[in-house]
Specification:
Chain B: Belongs to the ATP:guanido phosphotransferase family. The complex is a heterodimer. By secondary structure, chain A is mainly alpha-helical. Chain A is 47% helix and 11% strand. In chain A, helix 2 (48-57) packs antiparallel against helix 4 (78-84) and helix 7 (123-143) runs antiparallel to helix 8 (147-162). Classes of the chains: A mainly alpha, B alpha+beta.
Chain lengths: 171, 346
Amino acid sequence: MLCQHCKQQEAIMQLFITENGNTREVYLCESCAKKTQEVSFVFHPAIVPEFLQALFGFNSTAKDQPTETACPKCGLSFSQITQVGKLGCSTCYETFETQLEPLLRRVHGGGQNVGKIPARRGATLIKRMEQRKLKETLQALIQQEAFEEAAVVRDQIRKIEQSAGGEKSDS
Amino acid sequence: MIRKELLLQHSAWMSETDSPVVISSRVRLARNLEDFPFPHGLSQEGAAQVEKTVAQVLTDTEGENKELSYIPLTELNSIEQQVLIEKHLISPSLGGATGARGVALAPDHRYAVMVNEEDHLRVQVLLPGNQLLESHRLATELDDLLEAKLDFAYRESQGYLTACPTNVGTGLRASVMVHLPGLVITKQVQQVLGAVTRLGLAVRGLYGEGSQAFGHIFQVSNQITLGKSEEDILTHLDAVTRQIVEHELQARELLRQQTPIHLEDKVWRARGTLQNARLLSSEDAIHLLSHDRLGTDMGLLPKTKDCFATLIVDTRPGCLQYILDRELDPSQRDEERARLIRERIA
């Protein structure tokens, strides 16, 4: 949606303007919004799907190299996903990983998942993460020449390696 | 508990707390079953199957406040659905949708789990005041119980997988509902909330409508769900919320010092109207209740029998008709709204 004021830039926020006791809403771009006085502004969720479609659309990889690959589970193509603004199923994340990457970077800033891991299904993953963390601690302790503490951490790493699910240590 | 009794139950988040600015906290976790397409791609039968599977597990959970009752939305009339929306227990989009979908409610509504909304499961916890961490603890407890029995869609690199990529990762949306009359009256709200939106947080009004006309109530929530831990997301929102509270309290103090008589006039005028009006529109009621709450918070008015959040919710069109057990046209609603407020504010 274009800014209702300059009619040139993309509108990024919905503003509620109160004049003489009457409230009206306008969609403005950032620079026009900044110029507007006496408003209370609210980022409105109603326009999120539109922006999301725009975000999908911005994906140059998808535009330049149109692909008709369909998700093997739900059958949706990436262009269909773009139209709806939603993925079809969990497998879409794997099927369209490359196309989704720039979008996820724009929305979330490009980080990898560091959140909760499901306890039952992610048991192996949890062990691997624990092990990685311990290895980092071990390196730090060695650098500090805290060898006694380092030996304790090394034993903990070995214990995880011996149980199923751990990564084999390089050292 | 029979359905009407459950729906009319006083929701935990509407209780009065000693927090003068933060009305309530909410944490929502988005989860999907691995073996089914996301809700918008489900066939009728598929949606019914997801609902059956999930409702079974939800109603099997045990533990403090976790005796959940599952309510299929297909069994509710439009006023009952409106009540759930007005109490913030379901989203307007779940109410407006069709097909197999519903909500599992705890007796005091602290848990409200939506089924087949945008994702198969939306685990929500709603508590009064600033209780983001406690809300998250409760949500995680229930999530763990569900995860023991259901296979949630999850990838190591992207975390919990959701229909909309804006929720992927933690699936966590945390929000606080804040009452900011001081910032609105002193015309600082745009500046303060504008700063908040630059910190990766989103701001919207109560029920998503306009701001000033709707009780000076705003909702602030995180936008980023991937690449940050739950703890980081909650700590950030909590820190920003504390800043907002600080600014609001300063604005109130400014009003007390610079225009004390105008402030007193505003809040007493609100109390007087609420105690005596014979007709009140929904919008008028919220606006006056907001000024009344400002007055009680600042010790200028005696406390009312019912608290702010309860009065705002109970006087919305759906709740009002459900409480009175009859359909009312808009002018009848204005009359009944004024009557209900007169009785409860005494």
